[in-house]
Design goal:
The chain is about 40% helix and about 20% strand. The protein is of the alpha+beta class. The strands form two sheets. A six-stranded antiparallel beta sheet has the order 5-6-7-8-10-9. This is GIY-YIG catalytic domain-containing protein. InterPro entries: GIY-YIG_endonuc_sf (IPR035901).
């Protein structure tokens, strides 16, 4: 079943080598053969992994130390300067063709157990993704349990944000986005999503950024030079089913819609630059397909692991927008 896909990726399915139990593939790479390129691993459970290596022999040995279930290995020589580009293209092509990949970046679906499963079961994730009904937070509330020293870190930023005329709109938008678009949002706070308050990014023009994994999914602010407000969200393509529906959404809510290439966000990702916070709020309230696209992106990123932005989480802002 997978052989035609492997061929289409340029690996030549029949040329793959059985590496069951092997700890080295040095014999496959004599001095005359390039070791720099893209490799494909197959595991005993039928899953695959695509990666890049400057030295394929060394990289295989590293994988073997962590995984003893590698059964087959393919390789294609690629110039060092082209590794990133070719790796990303092949990962996206392989996933689109149906190859079950264990890669964590450049893919849409994360295969296997994840850290999120420890807090929200896969069954709960699936139900929440389908219908959006709030998940039980089981009494978890970090605002009541976290040490004060962590809360005061960004308190001045929070108080400064509160004084801005836009704060009420920020508060309402964040409450809607978090409660409608993040699974078990109190249980997953700080570990899987983080809220930055008046971050220094973009010259300090942002009111906030909502971050998951290694990227921002929602941000709003005001451009210093023009005093023009902006707000954008990174979502999947579920907000439209046809080009006409995409055009309708654009006319109703946004200035523009553009594809993005964040590593963690998979093959299907869009940045929507909304006409204002009220337009994004209305889309959340009135567009079921858009809410699904928000949920899909949240779950996709959280299944890849915790957020690297947890040190910048503003507990005061999160507590205030979620109060009540």
């Amino acid at each position: 079943m997978s052989l035609p896909i492997i061929d289409s990726l340029g690996f030549q399915a029949e040329a793959g080598h059985d590496v069951t139990g092997r700890v080295s593939i040095a014999d496959r790479f004599p001095a005359s053969k390039s070791r720099c390129g893209i490799y494909l691993l197959q595991f005993s459970d039928g899953t695959f992994y695509i990666g890049q290596a400057v030295d394929a022999v060394r990289r295989f040995a590293q994988h073997r130390k962590n995984y003893d279930t590698i059964v087959r290995h393919w390789f294609q020589s690629v110039a060092k300067g082209q590794l990133d580009q070719v790796e990303q293209r092949l990962i996206r092509q392989a996933e689109a063709a149906g190859l079950l990949l264990t890669n964590k970046t450049f893919v849409t679906n994360v295969v296997g157990d994840t850290d999120l499963d420890l807090l929200v079961s896969p069954a709960e994730q699936a139900v929440w993704l389908a219908d959006g009904h709030p998940l039980d937070n089981e009494g978890v509330d970090l605002s009541q349990s976290v040490e004060e020293k962590f809360k005061v870190k960004y308190r001045q930023n929070f108080r400064q944000l509160q004084r801005l005329p836009a704060y009420t709109r920020v508060q309402v938008l964040l409450r809607a986005y978090i409660t409608l678009g993040i699974p078990a949002y109190k249980k997953t706070e700080q570990a899987f999503w983080a809220l930055s308050c008046l971050p220094s990014t973009s010259g300090g023009s942002r009111y906030f950024t909502l971050n998951m994994n290694g990227m921002e999914v929602l941000a709003a602010g005001s451009e210093k030079a023009t005093n023009q407000g902006f707000v954008f969200a990174i979502v999947t393509g579920s907000f439209y089913s046809t080009p006409a529906e995409k055009a309708r959404f654009l006319r109703a809510y946004a200035y523009n819609i553009e594809s993005t290439t964040y590593q963690a966000a998979g093959t299907d990702q869009y940045r929507i630059n909304f006409k204002g916070m009220s337009f994004l709020l209305t889309a959340l309230q009135q567009e079921p397909a858009f809410r699904l696209s928000v949920r899909e992106m949240s779950l996709r990123l959280m299944r890849r692991g915790g957020t690297i932005y947890s040190p910048y989480h503003c507990f005061d802002l999160a507590e205030d927008v979620l109060r009540g």
